[in-house]
Specification:
alpha/beta, 27 strands, single chain, about 20% helix
Amino acid sequence: MKLTKIASAIIALSVGVITQAQADDHRYVIQVEAGHKGVVKALAKKLGGDIKLEGDQFIAATFTGKDLAQVKGLLNNPHITLIEEDLRRYPMSLYKDSVGNPMTAQVTPYAIYQSRANQVALNPSAGMKVCVIDSGLDNSNPDFDWNNITGDNDSGTGNWFQNGGPHGTHVAGTIGSANNNMGVIGMAPGVAMHIVKVFNASGWGYSSDLAYAANKCSNAGANIISMSLGGGGANNTEKNAFDAFTAAGGLVVAAAGNDANSVRSYPAGYPSVMMIGANDADNNIADFSQFPTCLSGRGKRATNNDGICVEVTAGGVDTLSTYPAGMATAASVTADGATVASSAMENLGAASADTYFMGTAQATDANANGKVCIIDRGVISFHDKVLNCENSGGVAAVIVNNESGMLYATLGDTNATSIPAVGAALEDKAALLAAQNITVSIGGSDYGFMSGTSMATPAVSGMAALVWSNHSECTGTQIRNALKATAMDAGTPGKDVYFGYGIVNAKAADTYLTTYGCSGK
């Protein structure tokens, strides 16, 4: 395996809370009749409410210590049309890695080849714009056409052009990072984007934030809304906002979720929103991708609606994209001068020395002093293996997988080691053992890997912009239908709950619309 591959840890990013329908924050969304928001706002304040957000025809407020029934009892006003819980929404990425060295040459992520997006050219005169609702896009990364990007802040989230974590920058890069001979290339390179930063410092936002952001997207002239986020429970205010955007001719795309179960996440679960699952580079479904049923209702009244389940998938496993500058981790390994694939575990630094095979490194070994330890996976933890290498005088550790493929791992939350440690593929074990000298390096990078339906969602959003730019007379719903009609079948033959209609094929969708027009066949 000659392609240098660098990856850091597999980490969960709070998606385990997705099934929790109520955020226990005593925060509620209050829908009001047109022209009466001021009256309701004053009433809410008088009764102890703390106003957090004002939308077009709604406000969001906290009522400390009061449940929904109590708030409804307090706000007994004829101009209020609905009061509901304001639900938390979280980023949906499951684990992240860093790979390769796009700092010196442009790299094309595998999902672009898989989806044939490289066979369709963006038509810049069509004026396509993708609105990314996420954690912001950090302006420290140069791999964007910054003259073509605008943004809005949500209350309390800070500047949209400064990251609230790498998630939003990674997502935006998958959609539209520039074709500029550096870094990575997006699905629709250089497409106009509008960024709405909704996640707070704790890494989440509310359903009302999304409704508010949808209005910002519309006001910015966006054609597509892309949301790599979600949470449990439906919210009427949120649903109405995305229904309106879709009805006006737009397309809304959102992540299915990463809990590997059949729970329906929102906003992806609304019929007006296109739900996206994730697949890997081998056309397999990602093991974390959620798969809610397409059925609604019960018994004889149950109906099938493919707008409330996964409609299509795209590459979302080990997806390379942009990071805020220096926030990703990049590793490299050479064996007697030849590059060997590797994945970063922990500890920045570099070392070059003779090799020593420590087996499974279950104990210290004086023969490892001053050398790079080659270690087999198994028996004890990765951390203890590296610690035994370091305590033996080893200067770096390379842990080799005990099954086919790359070893992605971390050294845990209580890492007590300091030497650079990387994983390696079983296929490269012989080359590592035969080498006289090995060089190991782990450093910062502006590019890295993440995995999740969060990564598949911007891929579809970018492809939708790409295809739509060549068929600008179509509506968002017609683009959505074309992507489904031409998706590459995967998994069980025909439509299924995991892949929906299949893996998006941008070239096939473009050809389909050219042949049959916006209405399809």
